[in-house]
Amino acid sequence: MTETLPAPAGVPAEYRNIGRRVPKFDAVHKTTGHLKFVGDIQLPRMLEIKILRSPHPHARIRRIDTSKAVAIPGVKAIITHEDAPSHPYGREFALPPEYMPRDNFVIPDKARYVGDVVAAVAATTPDVAARAVAAIEVEYEKLPASLDPFAAIASGAPRIHDTVAWGEEVDHLDGNVLRTVSMGVGDVEQGFADADVVIENTFTVPKQQQSPMERRCIVVDPLPDGRLEVWCTTQSIHGLRHNLARALGIPYSRINVHQTFLGGAFGARLDMNVDEPIAALLALKSGLPVRLQLTREEDMMSTSRHPATVRLKTGAKRDGTLVAHEMEAHVDTGAYACSGEWVTKCMGGWFMSMYRVAHQRFTGHVIYTNTPPAAGFRGFGNPQANVPVESHMDLLADRLGIDPVEIRLRNYIREGDAYYAQGPNVVDYIKSCGVEQILTSGAKRIGWDRRAGFAGQGDRKIRKGIGLGRAFHTSGCGQANEVSDILEYAGSVVKINEDGTANLTTALIDMGTGNLMGHAQIVAEVLGLRAEDVLVSSTDTDSSPYDVVTHASRSTYVSGMVAKLAAEKVRDRLTELAGRILDADPGDIVLGGGRATVRGTGGAADASVSIEEIARTAQMRQWGTIMAEASERAVTTASHFTCKFVEVSVDTETGHVTVDRVVAGSDVGQVINPVLVEGQIHGGAAQAFGYALLEEIQVDRETGRTLNPDYLNYKIFTSRDACRDFDVFFADTYEDSGPFGAKGIGESANNDGASAIVNAVANAIGVHIKDLPLTPEKVLRALGKL
User: Aldehyde oxidase/xanthine dehydrogenase a/b hammerhead domain: which residues (predicted)?
Assistant: First the structure.
């Protein structure tokens, strides 16, 4: 069941394309197998790459002998740390070089986790490459390892990195803390002194894998002129070009990255990994095209959500008014920084922006360990902060005897309030807010008044519970400052074809969400065309304007707005040319139904001309191609808000939790395409429920080995686990700064689900479990049965 509430006053009740349930334009291509992913690319004489990885969590490479591997027929190139650039590089796409931590090496001379790269082979077949990898002889000097974040920061812990480069500066580390992030407002000590009730708890949130269907893959074709043609599973073709050029120490202009569709990403392709520079080096060394596709095990170890231990302390008045809020987080970034600092900064921003609290303080420690590196994951620190905060809101409500919905309604940030958009350096103000509507409507839809009856169900085998989680996220990373520590701008080109259709060119990546279909609808709305008449062109870094990266729920709000700006320039050109043809003032021309019509003429034949006729006339009279580009930065972030109410059943004999019903309310402004938004909400819920109940990458604390890097042992929510009773509804908000009033949704759809599950299980069993995931063993332990 899905409902879109009426648009607010002043907003057109009907659009031609906005709000339409338009199927994704790539759906038929995908279902028929016609669409090409990176792994489908075949080039003549292409070599296959395999990587030799360290079996030790911490070891120095003393000697490598590749002579036996080189002698194997079909081996064309081998690289070790002796062949690779010796300077460190950064992996993040959205940061200028000056703000990017650089601690990665194409191939390091010291392995820092089980699976770190030691050497790589390019050969005629995958089997030959694998045989060559097995033939490489390595002498390791084993080093003591730090496999736990608290052990890593203890006195005398083995040092993982001695230095980290930031721009031109180099930090000499005293231990394994990459950075400590601090932010706050007011006087926290005074706030707690003024509180009537203070509660404090510690939560742990797990290392979750993004689990995209498509494995990481890169194809590199070295051209005779020294340039590299690149196809890669990446969320940013321009970001990849920049980082790859820096890693290799070559000019940007020598690299051309092609846009491809992704078979899922969820942040797993947000940054450059080690694979891309390795493939590029082997292509250059062999002079032949190469492909590197990770195995499922390698892919699952390449990136994950940052696990964290979070201590939260909250003070309130007896009426439920929050007066003090403090969070300290220990965040495990793994063996390399990647986005660890930014995830931690964002955790602080998300924590401090959920509720109106005069006195707040956040401290986050970003810690190196000898474990596989963590990176961006849908929500980017938000779920790690949301679970503790929303659990605390329920615990506080119970302590005060106040309804959990009511305590949230009293304290949520709202229109006009300031909030931290992406950590301590980006402050914005809420301009549209539907929190009250989605909370009150969601409570009614789930039957919130039944919740009190579920508490204290005694010895019943199956216990029922209802829980709530609410969240927010930003639509991109825009800010007022022109020079900042995060990039946020986009570019689009719109062109009218001679048959009256349009082409849209954007470097934005479609990760399977259909975001480019939404862009086509935006362009069509501006030009008076059908969405089906806007063709999204495949592009590359040579021919497209810069777009930062598909992340931060920015696709519609930021890149969609820039597509709208380019379309508006084309609209102005069309009305100008229509005015010439019809001998009318361009200001009197309106576009609609594929035609340009003089306003007030009722569509008379001599007062209307088709867009196809305009384009053909422009060609015949040599007025030029009707096209325009736009490249703009975002200056605001437009918070979007969500809530999830869930009903669960807990089997007290097995500890198994079943999700019976979901009510999901979302404030996304004007919905561009309900099909796409609903898909985000359903998918976000599945990932969140997996985070709450099933998923955790487990690393052996003795050997450093990942214990479950495959889907036999790493369990995710599947279609069989999905809740069938899923009610989606939207608030009737309109965001003036967004394209046709739209805001984002992608990440916020994921942020609140785990919290709702935790609170629902607590309602069912009477115990709040603070260690995710809520496995059957933990549930039974909470019930005193283990």
Answer: 32-144
Checking if the pLDDT of 3 tops 70, the result is no
Instruction: Write down which residue in 601, 633, 665 finishes a domain.
Output: 633
Residue 452 sits in the same domain as residue 557: no
What 3-state class would DSSP assign to 47?
strand
Whether residue 501 sits in one domain with residue 455: no
Please give the tally of structural domains in the chain: 2
Is 75 among the domain residues?
no
CATH number of the domain encompassing residue 704: 3.30.365.10
User: For 62-95, how does the pLDDT look when each residue is reduced to its tens digit (9 = 90+)?
Assistant: 999 999 999 999 999 999 999 999 999 999 999 8
Which of residues 599, 633, 667 is at a domain's end?
Answer: 633
| Residues 647, 562 within the same domain | no
Say if CB 682 and CB 373 are below 8 A apart: no
Residues 231-239 have a mean pLDDT of 97
CA 192 to chain centre: 35
Give the whole-angstrom CA distance, residue 572 versus residue 583: 16
777 and 640 in a common domain:
yes
For residue 455, being part of any structural domain is answered with yes
Looking up tokens 């869930």 gives 646
Residue 97 binned pLDDT confidence (cut-offs 50, 70, 90):
confident
Predicted pLDDT at 14? 73
Q: How far apart are CA 323 and CA 357, in angstroms?
A: 5
Q: Which of 228, 237, 227 is nearest to 258 (CA)?
A: 237
Range of the domain at 590: 489-633
Whole-number Å distance between alpha carbons of 529 and 610? 10
Q: pLDDT value at position 12?
A: 53
Q: What average pLDDT score do residues 218-243 get?
A: 97
Scan for tokens 């494995």, then name that residue.
Answer: 215
pLDDT of 7 strictly over 50: no
Count CB neighbours of 577 within 10 A. Answer: 25
Count Cβ atoms within 10 A of the Cβ of residue 451 and give its class: 0-12 exposed, 13-18 middle, 19 or more buried. buried
Together in a domain, 653 and 763: yes
Do residues 455 and 594 share a domain?
no
Same domain assignment for residues 447 and 548: no
- Distance, in Å, from the CA atom of 713 to the CA atom of 372, rounded to the nearest integer, reads 17
In-domain check, residue 2 = no
**pLDDT (tens digit, 9 = 90+) per residue, 331-364?**
999 999 999 999 999 999 999 999 999 999 999 9
Q: What number of other Cβ atoms are within 10 A of residue 99's Cβ?
A: 18
The reply to whether omega before 96 is within 30° of 0 (cis) is: no
pLDDT band at 165 (very low <50, low <70, confident <90, very high): very high
Q: Which of 154, 136, 173, 160 is nearest to 57 (CA)?
A: 160
pLDDT in tens, 429-475: 999 999 999 999 999 999 999 999 888 687 899 999 999 999 999 99
Identify the bridge partners of residue 63 per DSSP, sorted by sequence position: 139
CA separation, residue 21 to residues 1, 2, 249, 591, 758 (Å): 14, 12, 47, 22, 33
Report pLDDT for 484.
80
Of the candidates 247, 324, 267, 270, the one whose C-alpha atom is nearest the C-alpha of residue 85 is 247
Q: Are 608 and 401 in contact (CB under 8 A)?
A: no
Q: What is the mean pLDDT of residues 633-656?
A: 96
Same domain, 599 and 686: no
Q: What is the pTM of this model?
A: 0.96
**Cα–Cα distance, 716 to 686 (Å, whole number):** 9
Question: Does residue 783 lie within any of the structural domains?
Answer: yes
pLDDT at 2: 36
Q: H-type helices in 210-313, by residue range? A: 237-248, 275-286, 296-302
Give dist(CA 371, CA 336) in Å, integer: 9
- Measuring CA to CA, which residue among 55, 405, 395, 487 is closest to residue 197? 395
